[in-house]
Design a protein that fits this description.
414 residues, alpha/beta, 7-stranded parallel beta sheet, 6-stranded parallel beta sheet, 13 helices, 13 strands
């Protein structure tokens, strides 16, 4: 069985990490897996980048080209919207060159491949949904909108009041191309996104499976908490609330403003805040707590140590599919507070291994943080957190489900 994992990058963003982890676990399980990306950051010899040297310069400009049609929408929200109209990356040619038995797509936007190119792939396609883009008219984060069920148009992410807008145009392109794909199987990483995909008219004839990301629970595991704090030069006598975001304030979906409001409601002099994923912004709203910025953590070992230094990890995103941060933190035995949105309840069992706050309710978010920090059964919360991930998401268990899915598709094609 020859599997080709396709993602925009091998190390930038949650989808990249999840795709790379699956790729490496498949190899360890004896599967001939290779990974194809546009942006390669690792030195892994089983990962290949698609642009030739002649196209490297153009590939850097592709995300900009992909966004050009959005320029006419002056009132659009600051959330990602992709058109997938520019086919100059060489990804299609590279896929055909590999001649795989299975092509497994993950996150393929940013100008990586055009919608029309998908119909020219002559191998069965498995498509893992890391966000909403595959079944919408272009938005990656749909929030409250359900217009994707039929045909999009009047897109709130574009700030559009017209039925015939860019979202309708992209949707209709998908509606035309998807039926031409010889064999397309859709994978929803969370129960929530699986249900969303089933509602979209774009996937009405496709097999849709719920199959989560996997995690090596031997890598993300409990670690001496005192030593973990010392390694990051964090105080030993404080309650550490950890939050992660690459663009801490600019990415409104990550919920910093909701977290800011919640932290102002907690009256605990023993609390300090740790933010990872970015350096300190030039301007940030003041909080009555010391804030430690530990920057971007590129490797799993550093993340493991930080999760173990935390007393609680907060993920206040307005929308999440199957959060790597939540899964990694729980696997290290650190409880998580998050809003009860998207796929968060696949991971967090309310007041068992964390706290699910009412959606976008900063008061309840604050209550959850306080509840965990002052829990009489805090050790039990930590044990439950670890047990949940080992039981439901461990690599050795989940990879066998992916292999079984691939095999069932190949058997069907015989």
């Amino acid at each position: 069985m020859k599997v080709l994992i396709v993602n925009a990058s091998d190390n930038i963003g949650g989808a990249a990490k999840s795709a790379f982890r699956l790729h490496k676990t498949l190899i360890r399980s004896g599967i001939n897996s290779q990974m194809l990306v546009v942006t390669k950051l690792s030195d892994d010899r089983s990962v290949f980048n698609s642009p030739s040297k002649a196209r490297n310069y153009y590939s850097m400009l592709l995300p900009t080209f992909d966004q050009l049609p959005l320029k006419v929408y002056k009132n659009r929200t600051k959330t990602l919207f992709s058109t997938a109209w520019f086919p100059f990356t060489g990804v299609l040619e590279k896929i055909l060159e590999f001649s795989p038995d299975i092509v497994h797509f993950h996150w393929i936007c940013g100008g990586m491949i055009s919608i029309e190119d998908l119909a020219h792939i002559n191998a069965p396609i498995v498509w893992s949904l890391h966000d909403n883009w595959a079944f919408t008219g272009g938005c990656h984060i749909m929030w409250e909108c359900d217009r994707y069920i039929n045909a999009c148009g009047r897109c709130p992410r574009l700030g559009s009041s017209s039925d015939i807008d860019l979202s309708r145009f992209v949707y209709l392109r998908k509606k035309k191309i998807y039926p031409k794909i010889a064999d397309l199987t859709v994978v929803g990483l969370s129960r929530w996104i699986t249900d969303c995909a089933k509602k979209s008219s774009l996937f009405c004839v496709n097999d849709i499976h719920h199959l989560p990301n996997l995690l090596d629970t031997n890598v993300f595991s409990p670690f001496n908490r005192v030593l973990a704090k010392q390694l990051f030069d964090l105080p030993l006598d404080k309650h550490l609330v950890v939050f992660g975001a690459i663009k801490v304030i600019a990415d409104i979906n990550k919920g910093y403003h909701e977290l800011f409001n919640a932290l102002n409601l907690i009256n605990d002099p023993d609390v300090e805040i740790v933010i990872f994923g970015c350096s300190q912004p030039e301007s940030v709203p003041a909080l009555p707590y010391n804030i430690h910025y530990v920057g971007h953590l590129a490797d799993d070992l550093s993340l493991r140590v930080l999760y173990n230094a935390a007393d609680v990890v907060v993920v206040p995103s307005r929308q999440e599919n199957l959060s790597n941060v939540i899964m990694e933190s729980l696997s290290c035995g650190t409880p998580v507070v998050a809003f009860d949105v998207g796929g968060n309840n696949d991971l967090i069992e309310h007041q068992v291994n964390g706290y699910l706050a009412r959606p976008l309710d900063s008061v309840d978010l604050a209550k959850g943080i306080d509840w965990i920090l002052n829990s009489a059964d805090y050790l039990k919360l930590r044990l439950n957190a670890r047990d949940k991930v080992v039981r439901d998401f461990d690599s050795e268990h989940i990879v066998n489900r992916y292999i079984a899915l691939y095999q069932s598709i190949l058997d069907k094609c015989k």
